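tl;dr need the bound structure. longer version: we got a ligand (zinc ion) that a collaborator sent over and nobodys looked at where it sits. i said id run it. heres the input, straight from their email, havent touched it
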Amino acid sequence: MEYRRKKGSEMWHFCKNCPNWPFEDFDVRLTKPDDEKIDPECLSRENSNKCKKQKLK
Ligand SMILES: [Zn+2]
């Protein structure tokens, strides 16, 4: 799974339909960040099955 973080931000996003999903100027990682560094909006989407995850190629 792909995680993205806007440069200058502490929060990692993993739902590509998150309103704050970064499209430019972001860092990428493929391993899970610390829980407290994961966007609560993404977690809430995950919990309600509304999270569209980035498929790895
Ligand atoms: Zn998010």
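gonna send this back to them w/ a short note. The helical segments are 40-47.
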